[in-house]
Automatic annotation (TrEMBL):
Disulfide bonds listed in the record: 67-82, 85-98, 88-106, 127-145
GO CC entries: extracellular region
Pfam families per the UniProt record, alphabetical: Death_3, TNFR_c6
Name by which UniProt lists this protein: Tumor necrosis factor receptor superfamily member 6B-like
Lineage of source species: Eukaryota, Metazoa, Chordata, Craniata, Vertebrata
TNFR-Cys repeat spans: 66-106, 107-145
Signal peptide boundaries: 1-23
Entry coiled-coil feature ranges: none
InterPro entries: Death_3_fish, TNFR/NGFR_Cys_rich_reg, TNFRSF_decoy_receptor
Protein backbone atom coordinates (compact mmCIF):
# COMPACT_ATOMS: atom_id res chain seq x y z
CA UNK A 1 0.00 0.00 0.00
CA UNK A 2 1.47 3.34 -1.09
CA UNK A 3 0.53 6.49 0.81
CA UNK A 4 0.87 9.85 -0.96
CA UNK A 5 0.84 13.15 0.86
CA UNK A 6 -1.82 15.74 0.10
CA UNK A 7 0.42 18.08 -1.89
CA UNK A 8 1.46 15.28 -4.25
CA UNK A 9 -2.14 14.24 -4.84
CA UNK A 10 -3.14 17.85 -5.54
CA UNK A 11 -0.33 18.33 -8.04
CA UNK A 12 -1.26 15.12 -9.84
CA UNK A 13 -4.92 16.15 -9.97
CA UNK A 14 -4.11 19.58 -11.39
CA UNK A 15 -1.81 18.07 -14.02
CA UNK A 16 -4.45 15.57 -15.11
CA UNK A 17 -7.05 18.32 -15.41
CA UNK A 18 -4.64 20.42 -17.44
CA UNK A 19 -3.93 17.49 -19.74
CA UNK A 20 -7.65 16.89 -20.30
CA UNK A 21 -8.27 20.56 -21.15
CA UNK A 22 -5.19 21.45 -23.20
CA UNK A 23 -3.94 18.11 -24.50
CA UNK A 24 -0.91 16.02 -23.68
CA UNK A 25 1.60 18.26 -25.47
CA UNK A 26 0.71 21.27 -23.32
CA UNK A 27 1.97 19.47 -20.20
CA UNK A 28 5.52 20.24 -21.34
CA UNK A 29 4.87 23.97 -21.67
CA UNK A 30 2.94 26.72 -19.95
CA UNK A 31 1.69 30.18 -20.95
CA UNK A 32 3.10 33.42 -19.59
CA UNK A 33 3.19 37.06 -20.58
CA UNK A 34 6.62 38.25 -21.71
CA UNK A 35 7.76 40.82 -19.12
CA UNK A 36 9.73 42.63 -21.86
CA UNK A 37 7.28 42.77 -24.77
CA UNK A 38 3.97 42.04 -23.03
CA UNK A 39 3.25 39.33 -25.59
CA UNK A 40 2.05 35.83 -24.66
CA UNK A 41 4.74 33.15 -24.57
CA UNK A 42 4.91 29.37 -24.37
CA UNK A 43 7.58 28.47 -21.82
CA UNK A 44 9.09 25.06 -21.20
CA UNK A 45 8.17 23.35 -17.97
CA UNK A 46 10.85 21.88 -15.71
CA UNK A 47 11.35 18.12 -15.69
CA UNK A 48 10.71 15.91 -12.62
CA UNK A 49 13.36 16.37 -9.96
CA UNK A 50 13.65 20.11 -10.67
CA UNK A 51 11.69 23.32 -10.10
CA UNK A 52 11.31 26.61 -11.97
CA UNK A 53 13.96 29.05 -10.74
CA UNK A 54 13.12 31.69 -13.36
CA UNK A 55 10.46 31.88 -16.04
CA UNK A 56 11.31 32.27 -19.70
CA UNK A 57 11.14 35.50 -21.65
CA UNK A 58 11.61 36.52 -25.27
CA UNK A 59 15.38 36.41 -24.76
CA UNK A 60 15.89 33.39 -22.50
CA UNK A 61 14.53 29.93 -21.80
CA UNK A 62 12.97 28.69 -18.57
CA UNK A 63 15.60 28.24 -15.89
CA UNK A 64 15.22 25.02 -13.89
CA UNK A 65 17.14 23.98 -10.76
CA UNK A 66 17.51 20.61 -8.99
CA UNK A 67 15.33 19.93 -5.98
CA UNK A 68 17.19 20.41 -2.68
CA UNK A 69 17.55 17.49 -0.29
CA UNK A 70 14.30 16.28 1.33
CA UNK A 71 12.18 17.72 -1.49
CA UNK A 72 10.92 16.50 -4.86
CA UNK A 73 8.81 17.02 -7.97
CA UNK A 74 7.31 14.01 -9.73
CA UNK A 75 5.88 15.75 -12.79
CA UNK A 76 6.85 18.30 -15.42
CA UNK A 77 6.10 21.54 -13.61
CA UNK A 78 6.54 25.29 -13.32
CA UNK A 79 6.30 25.63 -9.56
CA UNK A 80 8.63 27.99 -7.72
CA UNK A 81 9.92 25.41 -5.27
CA UNK A 82 9.96 21.65 -4.85
CA UNK A 83 7.49 19.83 -2.63
CA UNK A 84 8.61 18.72 0.79
CA UNK A 85 9.09 14.96 1.15
CA UNK A 86 6.26 13.26 2.98
CA UNK A 87 6.52 11.63 6.40
CA UNK A 88 5.12 8.19 7.14
CA UNK A 89 2.23 8.17 9.57
CA UNK A 90 1.38 6.15 12.65
CA UNK A 91 2.15 2.44 12.41
CA UNK A 92 3.84 2.96 9.02
CA UNK A 93 7.41 2.44 7.85
CA UNK A 94 9.26 3.73 4.79
CA UNK A 95 8.95 1.35 1.86
CA UNK A 96 10.93 3.58 -0.52
CA UNK A 97 12.99 6.63 0.38
CA UNK A 98 12.16 10.04 -1.05
CA UNK A 99 14.23 11.07 -4.09
CA UNK A 100 14.41 14.25 -6.14
CA UNK A 101 11.77 12.94 -8.57
CA UNK A 102 9.54 10.86 -6.29
CA UNK A 103 8.05 11.17 -2.85
CA UNK A 104 8.69 8.53 -0.21
CA UNK A 105 6.41 5.51 -0.22
CA UNK A 106 5.05 4.16 3.06
CA UNK A 107 3.49 0.88 4.09
CA UNK A 108 2.07 -0.52 7.30
CA UNK A 109 4.67 -1.86 9.69
CA UNK A 110 4.90 -5.55 10.55
CA UNK A 111 1.78 -6.83 12.26
CA UNK A 112 -0.46 -4.15 10.70
CA UNK A 113 -2.44 -3.69 7.49
CA UNK A 114 -4.09 -0.76 5.73
CA UNK A 115 -7.81 -0.63 6.53
CA UNK A 116 -9.62 1.39 3.87
CA UNK A 117 -12.66 2.10 6.04
CA UNK A 118 -10.49 3.71 8.72
CA UNK A 119 -7.85 5.08 6.29
CA UNK A 120 -5.12 3.93 8.64
CA UNK A 121 -2.97 0.95 9.58
CA UNK A 122 -4.57 -1.39 12.12
CA UNK A 123 -3.38 -4.59 13.73
CA UNK A 124 -3.80 -7.89 11.94
CA UNK A 125 -6.68 -9.92 13.33
CA UNK A 126 -5.79 -12.85 15.57
CA UNK A 127 -7.34 -16.20 14.77
CA UNK A 128 -9.03 -17.34 18.00
CA UNK A 129 -8.54 -20.78 19.49
CA UNK A 130 -10.36 -23.35 17.40
CA UNK A 131 -9.26 -21.56 14.23
CA UNK A 132 -6.00 -21.49 12.30
CA UNK A 133 -4.36 -19.03 9.94
CA UNK A 134 -5.23 -19.74 6.29
CA UNK A 135 -3.39 -16.69 4.96
CA UNK A 136 -0.98 -14.57 6.97
CA UNK A 137 -1.61 -10.83 7.05
CA UNK A 138 0.38 -8.46 4.84
CA UNK A 139 0.74 -4.66 4.87
CA UNK A 140 -2.22 -4.59 2.45
CA UNK A 141 -4.46 -7.41 3.75
CA UNK A 142 -5.73 -8.73 7.05
CA UNK A 143 -5.19 -12.23 8.39
CA UNK A 144 -7.56 -14.86 6.97
CA UNK A 145 -8.74 -17.45 9.52
CA UNK A 146 -10.52 -20.79 9.16
CA UNK A 147 -12.09 -23.25 11.60
CA UNK A 148 -9.78 -26.17 12.30
CA UNK A 149 -10.70 -29.22 10.26
CA UNK A 150 -11.55 -32.60 11.77
CA UNK A 151 -8.51 -34.07 13.50
CA UNK A 152 -6.79 -30.72 14.07
CA UNK A 153 -6.84 -28.03 16.76
CA UNK A 154 -5.54 -24.63 17.83
CA UNK A 155 -5.41 -23.80 21.53
CA UNK A 156 -4.20 -20.19 21.27
CA UNK A 157 -5.10 -16.91 19.60
CA UNK A 158 -2.52 -16.20 16.92
CA UNK A 159 -1.80 -14.22 13.76
CA UNK A 160 0.50 -16.86 12.29
CA UNK A 161 -0.23 -20.33 13.67
CA UNK A 162 -1.95 -23.03 11.63
CA UNK A 163 -4.10 -25.76 13.11
CA UNK A 164 -2.12 -28.70 14.53
CA UNK A 165 -2.86 -32.38 14.05
CA UNK A 166 -4.22 -34.19 17.12
CA UNK A 167 -1.66 -36.56 18.59
CA UNK A 168 -2.25 -40.30 18.23
CA UNK A 169 -2.34 -42.06 21.58
CA UNK A 170 -1.97 -45.49 19.99
CA UNK A 171 1.35 -44.53 18.43
CA UNK A 172 2.76 -44.04 21.93
CA UNK A 173 1.17 -47.25 23.26
CA UNK A 174 -1.35 -45.29 25.31
CA UNK A 175 -5.13 -45.01 25.57
CA UNK A 176 -7.15 -41.95 24.58
CA UNK A 177 -9.07 -40.75 27.62
CA UNK A 178 -10.28 -37.52 26.02
CA UNK A 179 -10.84 -37.02 22.31
CA UNK A 180 -9.34 -33.88 20.81
CA UNK A 181 -11.53 -30.94 19.84
CA UNK A 182 -10.90 -27.90 17.65
CA UNK A 183 -9.55 -26.04 20.70
CA UNK A 184 -7.52 -28.74 22.47
CA UNK A 185 -5.37 -31.76 21.72
CA UNK A 186 -6.25 -35.37 22.49
CA UNK A 187 -5.41 -36.51 26.02
CA UNK A 188 -3.65 -39.85 26.43
CA UNK A 189 -3.09 -42.08 29.44
CA UNK A 190 -0.59 -44.83 30.14
CA UNK A 191 -2.65 -47.56 31.77
CA UNK A 192 0.49 -49.14 33.26
CA UNK A 193 1.03 -45.94 35.25
CA UNK A 194 -2.37 -44.23 35.48
CA UNK A 195 -2.98 -40.92 37.23
CA UNK A 196 -5.98 -39.23 38.78
CA UNK A 197 -8.42 -38.04 36.12
CA UNK A 198 -7.90 -34.45 37.25
CA UNK A 199 -4.22 -34.72 36.36
CA UNK A 200 -5.21 -35.39 32.75
CA UNK A 201 -7.72 -32.53 32.80
CA UNK A 202 -4.81 -30.21 33.65
CA UNK A 203 -3.60 -30.56 30.07
CA UNK A 204 -6.59 -28.67 28.66
CA UNK A 205 -7.57 -26.27 31.47
CA UNK A 206 -5.50 -23.28 30.19
CA UNK A 207 -6.87 -23.80 26.67
CA UNK A 208 -10.39 -24.12 28.13
CA UNK A 209 -10.30 -20.57 29.52
CA UNK A 210 -8.80 -19.15 26.34
CA UNK A 211 -11.51 -20.74 24.19
CA UNK A 212 -14.55 -20.22 26.42
CA UNK A 213 -15.16 -16.50 26.67
CA UNK A 214 -15.81 -15.51 30.28
CA UNK A 215 -16.36 -11.86 31.18
CA UNK A 216 -13.23 -10.31 32.62
CA UNK A 217 -14.82 -9.32 35.93
CA UNK A 218 -16.03 -12.88 36.48
CA UNK A 219 -12.69 -14.30 35.41
CA UNK A 220 -10.92 -12.05 37.92
CA UNK A 221 -13.22 -13.27 40.68
CA UNK A 222 -12.59 -16.86 39.66
CA UNK A 223 -8.81 -16.42 39.72
CA UNK A 224 -9.15 -14.83 43.14
CA UNK A 225 -11.01 -17.90 44.38
CA UNK A 226 -8.67 -20.55 42.97
CA UNK A 227 -7.75 -22.94 45.80
CA UNK A 228 -4.06 -22.60 46.56
CA UNK A 229 -1.61 -23.17 49.37
CA UNK A 230 0.04 -19.87 48.50
CA UNK A 231 -2.25 -16.94 49.37
CA UNK A 232 0.07 -14.47 47.65
CA UNK A 233 -0.81 -15.97 44.26
CA UNK A 234 -4.36 -14.70 44.62
CA UNK A 235 -3.45 -11.09 45.43
CA UNK A 236 -3.90 -8.17 43.03
CA UNK A 237 -6.36 -9.66 40.53
CA UNK A 238 -8.65 -6.63 40.17
CA UNK A 239 -6.52 -4.91 37.52
CA UNK A 240 -5.31 -7.95 35.58
CA UNK A 241 -5.91 -8.09 31.81
CA UNK A 242 -7.15 -11.19 29.98
CA UNK A 243 -3.63 -12.25 29.05
CA UNK A 244 -2.44 -11.76 32.64
CA UNK A 245 -5.39 -13.74 33.98
CA UNK A 246 -4.70 -16.60 31.57
CA UNK A 247 -1.07 -16.56 32.63
CA UNK A 248 -2.15 -16.72 36.28
CA UNK A 249 -4.45 -19.66 35.52
CA UNK A 250 -1.66 -21.55 33.72
CA UNK A 251 0.67 -20.98 36.65
CA UNK A 252 -1.95 -22.22 39.10
CA UNK A 253 -2.72 -25.32 37.03
CA UNK A 254 0.92 -26.37 36.94
CA UNK A 255 1.06 -26.68 40.74
CA UNK A 256 -2.57 -27.50 41.60
CA UNK A 257 -3.41 -30.85 43.19
CA UNK A 258 -6.06 -33.17 41.68
CA UNK A 259 -8.43 -32.23 44.52
CA UNK A 260 -8.01 -28.53 43.71
CA UNK A 261 -8.52 -29.13 39.98
CA UNK A 262 -11.77 -30.97 40.75
CA UNK A 263 -13.07 -27.89 42.57
CA UNK A 264 -12.72 -25.72 39.46
CA UNK A 265 -16.09 -26.56 37.80
CA UNK A 266 -17.82 -25.91 41.11
CA UNK A 267 -16.15 -22.51 41.47
CA UNK A 268 -17.33 -21.54 37.98
CA UNK A 269 -20.90 -22.58 38.70
CA UNK A 270 -20.97 -20.67 41.98
CA UNK A 271 -19.75 -17.58 40.12
CA UNK A 272 -22.72 -17.91 37.73
CA UNK A 273 -20.60 -19.21 34.87
CA UNK A 274 -22.70 -22.36 34.88
CA UNK A 275 -22.33 -23.12 31.18
CA UNK A 276 -18.53 -23.12 31.41
CA UNK A 277 -18.54 -25.00 34.70
CA UNK A 278 -20.80 -27.74 33.37
CA UNK A 279 -18.68 -28.12 30.23
CA UNK A 280 -15.50 -28.50 32.26
CA UNK A 281 -17.20 -31.00 34.59
CA UNK A 282 -18.36 -32.97 31.54
CA UNK A 283 -14.76 -33.17 30.29
CA UNK A 284 -13.61 -34.42 33.69
CA UNK A 285 -16.41 -36.96 33.91
CA UNK A 286 -15.50 -38.24 30.44
CA UNK A 287 -11.86 -38.71 31.47
CA UNK A 288 -12.86 -40.57 34.64
CA UNK A 289 -15.23 -42.79 32.68
CA UNK A 290 -12.60 -43.66 30.07
CA UNK A 291 -9.99 -44.37 32.72
CA UNK A 292 -12.37 -46.85 34.29
CA UNK A 293 -13.34 -48.39 30.95
CA UNK A 294 -9.93 -48.53 29.28
CA UNK A 295 -7.57 -48.87 32.21
CA UNK A 296 -10.00 -50.41 34.72
CA UNK A 297 -9.09 -47.65 37.15
CA UNK A 298 -11.77 -45.99 39.27
CA UNK A 299 -11.24 -42.74 41.11
CA UNK A 300 -12.13 -42.80 44.79
CA UNK A 301 -11.29 -39.08 45.03
CA UNK A 302 -13.99 -37.97 42.58
CA UNK A 303 -16.12 -35.15 43.92
CA UNK A 304 -19.87 -35.44 43.49
CA UNK A 305 -20.99 -32.16 41.99
CA UNK A 306 -24.45 -32.16 43.55
CA UNK A 307 -23.10 -32.80 47.05
CA UNK A 308 -20.54 -30.03 46.66
CA UNK A 309 -23.19 -27.52 45.62
CA UNK A 310 -25.61 -28.50 48.38
Amino acid sequence: MVFLNLSTELLILLSVRSWLVHGATSTLTYKVTDPITGNPLQCDRCPPGTFLRASCSSIKKSECAPCPQDSFTELWNYIGRCLRCGVCGRNQVVKKECTANSDCQCECKQGYFYHQDYDMCVRHSECPSGQGVLTKGTPERDTVCGICSVGTFSDISSTDQNCTQHKSCSDAGQQMVLKGAVWHDSVCANCRDPKDGAEYLKEIVPAFFIHHKIKIKRLRRMVNKLPSDDVRKQEGTLQLSFSELHSRISSWVSSATPVQIRQLPVILIKLRASHAGEKLQKKLNGIDKNLLKLCHIGNDREVDLNETLA
